[in-house]
Specification:
The structure is a homodimer. Chain A has about 230 residues and is of the alpha+beta class. Chain A is built from nine helices and ten strands. In chain A, the strands form three sheets. A four-stranded antiparallel β-sheet of chain A has the order 1-7-2-5. Chain A has a three-stranded antiparallel β-sheet with strand order 4-3-6. A three-stranded antiparallel β-sheet of chain A has the order 8-10-9. In chain A, helix 6 crosses helix 9 and helix 7 crosses helix 8. The longest helix of chain A has 27 residues. At the A-B interface, strand 4 and helix 5 of A face strand 4 and helix 5 of B. Chain A binds a DNA duplex (30 and 30 nucleotides) through helix 8.
DNA sequence: GGGAGACCTTGATCGAGATCAAACTCGACC
DNA sequence: GGTCGAGTTTGATCTCGATCAAGGTCTCCC
């Protein structure tokens, strides 16, 4: 397998600020990997000590109870960072929602490299703080919002997240987009059942708030109404 | 107001690894402040740009909806870090649950200082990663656990958190402890109503799983049962 | 383009937890 | 000690979302 050069080039967020010799060093450590939709990102080492960068695609981070209930606790988009440097194994498991390409690093190598490159640690810190903010906002949704509010908030969030996937100028939220989630996965993000999600989608459609041209496609017809519903 | 020297001494987590001149520089930036139970930690600057370290006491981080529903999205114990360096204002508001002492820094000063001291940024990163792990585990609770499971998980979590508040050798989880939360605040942590929390406490008491000598005091009688209930 | 199966929608019913309402407890303060 | 009031418990009822149970639809693959 060749060094994962494209991931360090594409992943501006992680690598910005490193000058060239440092990028070269990071690139020799990373290995590119593809993961098909539905496949887990299996950590190759026995000790489960890997970290990764998303190059392309969307992955979910989930935790489950012993009896099989699942909660999606995070979603990783291109340029996002996956894994848990500097500590015990993260409890979450990672599964690709779409075909994905990632750049994988051994955790030990990555940790050592990060310690030697403060600029990388700084980027990682900013990114982790942002993720924590987002996660806390989601706690509000899970603990206190009703099903209609959850669905509306979810659609607005997806609209924002899927807007700036490309590299162009920030174009604002997307009016139409393709969900990387099945109905069950939407339920697992929102702490609902698949039936409730389906009913809420149907209601939004019949109220003329959204159009649903296909199972995965969403077109927002009345953003104001969604924002009102989102609470 | 004098430089906040005790906070940097006591807060090993933030300051470990900095050699003495650096500690001196940090200590000139921080100002000690006390906050009474129930009082918000009001950010003094107009632009709400402060960060802080907890020296003593417990504080809650909350988000609220427009119509007044509240969710506690984090709890800060001694040595924990509060605030949002390197970015826009965090959405959460901070209120002391007990009388508290904190060490406050101007965000700009702190940011600049952190950028110049990679060891501090590293500590901050480890801490933020741990907090993210904890927050994600809480998402599972909020999204997928039943009221009895939530209460049991909460009590076990409190037992762990309140155990190593002191500086002695790690003594394992506490068998009895004083909750820093009112019933309403427990409800706000767990995404329940106060009535449901009260009923679950009463049930655990009459089942002999816990003793409740006073409103705020808890004694765990049957930890195994709690762990079973926690799911 | 036809069949199979995964995924999704819809309907009927149920129940956990919310809501509404009232009594009780405990500590603070006079 | 008595009173006041916030905080808590307990009870009755209601409701939202879960659960149970069919159908329906899209897509993949031959």
């Amino acid at each position: 397998m060749s060094p994962c050069d494209t991931c360090v080039v594409r992943n501006r967020a992680i690598c910005a600020g490193l000058d060239n010799p440092e990028i070269a060093a990071l690139s020799t450590m990373g290995r590119r990997r593809t993961v098909s939709a539905g496949e887990p990102l299996i950590w190759e080492d026995d000790d489960s000590l890997l970290v990764a960068n998303v190059i392309e695609g969307v992955l979910k981070l989930t935790t489950s109870t012993a009896d099989g209930r699942e909660q999606i606790v995070g979603v990783a988009y291109p340029s996002d960072f996956i894994g848990r440097p500097f500590g015990q194994t993260s409890a979450a498991s990672v599964v690709a929602l779409t075909d994905a390409r990632v750049c994988v690093f051994s955790r030990n190598d990555f940790d050592r490299f990060a310690r030697e490159h403060p600029e990388l640690e700084h980027k990682l810190l900013e990114r982790t703080l942002s993720e924590l903010d987002r996660t806390r906002a989601w706690m509000m949704l899970l603990g206190r919002k009703s099903a209609p509010e959850k669905i509306a908030t979810f659609l607005l969030d997806m609209s924002d997240r899927l807007a700036d996937n490309g590299c162009g100028p920030h174009a604002g939220p997307a009016r139409q987009f393709t969900l990387p989630f099945s109905r069950q996965q939407v339920a697992d993000v929102l702490g609902l059942t698949i039936e409730t999600v389906s009913r809420q989608f149907t209601k939004l459609k019949s109220d003329g708030v959204v159009a649903l041209p296909s199972r995965r496609d969403v077109e927002i017809l009345d953003r104001g109404a969604l924002q009102l519903l989102a609470g």
